[in-house]
Design a protein that fits this description.
It contains 10 helices and 15 strands. The protein is α/β, with parallel strands linked by helices. It has 2 domains: about 200 residues, DHBP synthase (Alpha-Beta Complex); about 90 residues, Threonylcarbamoyl-AMP synthase, C-terminal domain (Rossmann fold), CATH 3.40.50. α1 packs across α5. It is globular and about 55 Å long. Bound molecules: threonylcarbamoyladenylate and magnesium ion.
Length: about 325
């Protein structure tokens, strides 16, 4: 069991000693260490069983703090930062020399964001250090949206869990950068394309290069529960799998026979609510007595796009 609480001073002390602290953010919980301490960063990779080619996101307390570690010169990215930080937006920016290359897996750009959670912002301000933090789950598994999720899988590997309650967005941040002069989205997430395009106009989607080691979050098989997940029309899937014990994750008040374990992402068909529930339900379905999990795709708009992206990567194909 990891020591757990909402004591920011205790969390800061552990970070300064080179330890690992699970931090709450509005997207998902992160597994944090001092970005500038290479040994501490190594222990993040070790705890998650994460390959070294998968770079980490660096968290800072404010837009002003970014300049110490990266160049935020592009006016479009600056506009996005001013509009959406603190929030579920990660920017890929040319890194400065003080960011160890293990953090960026040797890449020239560092992923940076200002998270929107009171406790974590307090911790970042107190430390005045950047915290590198991937999602606090074993590599390839569903991201945690509750302190208990972290405890369950990584409790024996973290020194402290800063419990900030349930994550308010429930999907990882949207990753944005510039390539060949264009604004590109590398990972769909808690900030929708529509919101981004309102600020900087049309963007390019670069989310499907599954073999590209620069963006393992885009690996075809990621974010996955341990039980087989099938995504598609629920009627057809139920028929196809009628001899297996199924759990169903659906969107909006469907009649499901009572002997089947069912999870409704949002009875009122609200995509934000669905995003909030998705990872928790995937975990609960995984822990239920069902042998397989069936889920229907959501409307491909707003956060629905990011949800469908996660479902696709988590599913059997
Ligand atoms: O919402 C989030 O982003 C959460 C919270 C904790 O902030 N973090 C998160 O981290 O989802 P992680 O490590 O699970 O996913 C980070 C993704 C990975 O797919 C990684 O490849 C990509 O960001 N990434 C990080 N640094 C990068 C870089 N320098 N260039 C390209 N991709 C990068
Ligand atoms: Mg992750």
């Amino acid at each position: 069991m990891a020591e757990t609480g909402n004591n920011v001073d205790r969390a800061a002390e552990i970070i300064l000693e080179g330890g690992l602290v699970a931090i709450p953010t509005e997207t998902v919980y992160g597994l944090a260490a001092n970005t500038l301490n290479e040994k501490a960063i190594l222990s993040i990779f070790e705890a998650k069983q994460r390959p070294f080619f998968d770079p980490l996101i660096v968290h800072v307390h404010s837009l002003e703090a970014v300049g110490k570690y990266a160049d935020l010169d592009d006016h479009r990215l600056l506009k996005l930062a001013k509009t959406f930080w603190p929030g579920p937006l990660t920017l890929l920016l040319p890194k400065k020399n003080n960011i160890p290359s293990i953090v960026t897996s040797g890449l020239e750009r560092v992923a940076i964001r200002v998270p929107n959670h009171e406790l974590t912002l307090k911790l970042l301000e107190k430390l005045d250090l950047p915290l590198a933090a991937p999602s606090a789950n074993p590599f390839g598994y569903v991201s945690p949206t509750l302190a208990q999720h972290v405890e369950k899988q990584l409790g024996h590997k973290v020194n402290y869990i800063l419990d900030g309650g349930p994550s308010k967005v429930g999907l990882e941040s949207t990753i944005v950068g510039i390539e060949e002069g264009n604004v590109c989205v590398y990972r769909l997430g808690g900030l929708s394309l529509e919101e981004i395009e309102k600020v900087v106009g049309k963007v390019e989607l670069r989310i499907n290069n599954s073999s590209d080691p620069k963006a393992p979050g885009q690996l075809k098989n990621h974010y996955a529960p341990r039980k087989p997940l099938f995504v598609g029309d629920l009627r057809e899937l139920s028929e196809l799998h009628k001899n297996e014990k199924i759990a169903i994750i659906h969107f909006g008040n469907k009649e499901i026979p009572s002997h089947i374990k069912a999870f409704d992402l949002s009875p009122g068909k609200d995509l934000k609510e669905a995003a909030l529930n998705l990872f928790r339900f995937l975990r609960e379905a995984d822990e239920s007595s069902a042998e397989i999990v069936l889920c229907e795709p959501l409307p491909d708009e707003g956060l629905g796009r990011a949800i469908n992206d996660r479902l696709r990567r988590a599913s059997v194909q």
